[in-house]
Amino acid sequence: MSLKMCVMLSLVVNKSGEVFSIQTVNLTKRFAKKRHRGVFGFLRRNQLDRDVIEKNGVTVALNKVNIKICPGELFGLLGPNGSGKTTMIKCLSTILIPDEGTVRVNGFDAQKETSMVRASLGMVVGGERTLYWKLTARDNLMYFASLYKMQRAHAKRRVDELLEMFHLSDRADERLEDYSTGMRQKVTIARALLHDPPILLLDEPTLGLDPGFSRQIRRQIRELSEKHGKTVLLTTHYMDEADQLCDRVAFINSGNIVAVDTPNRLKARVKEKEIVEVTVYSPPADIEERIRSLLPDAEVVKLILGDEDKGNPSRIKIIGGAAEEHVGTVIDALRQKNVRIGSLNVGVPTLEDVFIKLTGAKLTEGGMQ
Amino acid sequence: MEKNNKDYRLREVKCPSGFTWANVKAELRAIWEANVKAWKIDFAYPVSFVRQLISPVVFMIPYLLYGLVLIGGTYSENLAQLVGTGDVVAFIFTGYIMMGFIGTAVWAMGFSMRREQWFGTLEAIYVTPASRLGQVLGMALHSTVHQGMGTLIQAVFIYVTFGLGLNMSGILPALLIFALMLFALYGFGIVIAAVSMILKEGWIVSDSFYSIMTILSPVAYPLTVLPTLAQQASAIFPTAPALIGMRTFLIYDYVPEVVGNVFLHLLALGIVWIVFGVFVFHLTDKYVRKKGILKKY
């Protein structure tokens, strides 16, 4: 073991002997809001504008976030769009420099030892274009292997191994432009594993994939954690994904961590029969307000709009109080407004219910994948 | 399920870093692979690839014809009075070579990071331990070879159609001057690459500098026809002294417009531009990561 490694280990083992793959202390990131006033907007800018910018001109993407992730843990970061998940991943991966706080990855300080942090990480970002579509899968992987400073012979062996692992060997020499979205995502994950990093950052890895590919990707993520001992930080707004995969989950909302625990313990925070979920079609805008007025003891009444064209009806969630006893009242209220009811479920809380209960915000629009 | 974290040990990371030979080799390989990747992407667009090879010839012909028609032949008495030689073809050809390599710095190198942004791969590159300068230098290598091939085609074409006559015994010192110029030009290209990451509309930056450098470099006219201030300003870019130096060795009877040691001038410019370029690049790198504008277009 090198001297550097010894130093590194001593840095991350705290007094109680715990070791952390990822640790953030008071991690804060703010972004300036930009107001667009049109082409000649600068001419119209006055003192009032300046005061408004000074007062409201900053978005706090991460607000004093403290997280400790143990080696080998599969940790989920769950939150709605814009909650700070991607900012968090970017701060950990050195793409962003935080405004305050510290980040340690595999024992290395993200601001002082960026190179070693990068060598400790494999990162997967959801979305289509993070690879060269005009190159083959093999060429893409070989190129990134050189950026991970791998020796050529070693890189060749590793690329073959990964192509085999992801069942891409027979199409390895085809350009990525001829691949499906799911296959490209497999190449992206293979790229993150090239240098066999101890830590993986997966930012919405199943985003935009069909259910079949999503299942395959989830299975592989689980294997990477269990068989290969990788520490995985997974961000997602798919609650089932986090529930199925993660050892622990953190809820993030508006840049704040609101809860960290195992999925089961989090779900235990909401009792069974406290949950009522009604799927409805074309609900009027005031239905949420109407039901809330009828159920004053309910902690949360939330209308989650769906996309009926895509087969996702809207949902009304009622959490807390004696929700189960009010089913009749809810049905009457919906009928009065001529709202068509798809289904009605009582009990079995999900992570989404916990999130809604804790934050009052909704995790997803249109339900789960 | 919560894992007992005491059962796990943090893993050692094998990655060369710092001022070690292993790291230098790894960074050089990353530069080479960035160059190879650029070639592979070029070959994916064969028509565009061929067009880029012959475009130096196509763009140069109007320059030459314009000159020849105005003068009424390939010999200009007026040019001879200014710089000793009246050979318009050799004068414009050597100047035009320079224009191609100015393009290498301001377009290919200047656009290298923006190109990755456009591909969507910039963030993926940023999370690797290799230096981002490798992208710029890989593109420089690719573009220099590409431009070199175009220049060879250009030379053959001009030789066959217009009777290009160069002093072949001066080719080695001319190449040395050229190499020194490239060194400085790469530094300049790194500055453009850095600036275009912030300004985003990179083509405006590249186009502006391309225009300025083309005017300040005596491509199709002797430097002495420019106003004194412009002549002085041309000394901060490597192309003007390099062009004058190369013409001294390549064109018969050519009398340089300015005096001084071209080799030392270019060496000094090279050091200044490279140091300045790397400095600006690192500042920009920090700035875009601080502001979170790496991915934004």
What do you see in this structure?
The complex is a heterodimer of chains A (369) and B (297). Chain A is of the alpha/beta class. Chain A folds into two domains: 248 residues, 3-Layer(aba) Sandwich (Rossmann fold), CATH 3.40.50.300; 78 residues, MTH889-like domain (Alpha-Beta Plaits, 2-Layer Sandwich). Helix content of chain A is 36%, strand content 24%. The two termini of chain A are 45 Å apart. By secondary structure, chain B is mainly alpha-helical. Chain B has one domain. In chain B, 72% of the residues lie in helices and 0% in strands. In chain B, helix 1 packs across helix 7, helix 4 packs antiparallel against helix 11 and helix 8 runs parallel beside helix 12. The chains are: A alpha/beta (369), B mainly alpha (297). At the A-B interface, helix 1, helix 5, strand 6 and helix 6 of A face helix 1, helix 6 and helix 12 of B.
What are the secondary-structure elements of chain B, in order, as H or E? HHHHHHHHHHHH
Number of domains of chain B: 1
The biggest beta sheet of chain A reads: 6 strands, mixed
Q: What is the class of the largest domain in chain A in the CATH system?
A: Alpha Beta
Could you say which structural class the secondary elements and strand pairing of chain A correspond to? alpha/beta
Q: CATH superfamily membership of the largest domain in chain A, which one? A: P-loop containing nucleotide triphosphate hydrolases
Give the terminus-to-terminus CA distance of chain B.
43 Å
Total beta strands of chain A? 14
* SSE succession of chain A: HEHHEEHEEHEHHHEHEHEEHEHEEHEH
Cα gyration radius of chain A (Å): 23 Å
Query: Distance between termini of chain A?
Result: 45 Å
Q: How much is the average pLDDT of chain B?
A: 88
Quickly count the domains of chain A.
2
Provide mean pLDDT of chain A, rounded.
Answer: 84
Query: What summary fits the major beta sheet of chain B?
Result: none
Largest beta sheet: strand ordering of chain A: 6-7-8-3-9-10
**What is the third-level CATH name, the topology of the largest domain in chain A?**
Rossmann fold
Low-confidence stretches of chain B: 1-9
Shape of chain B: elongated
Poorly predicted runs of chain A: 1-12, 365-369
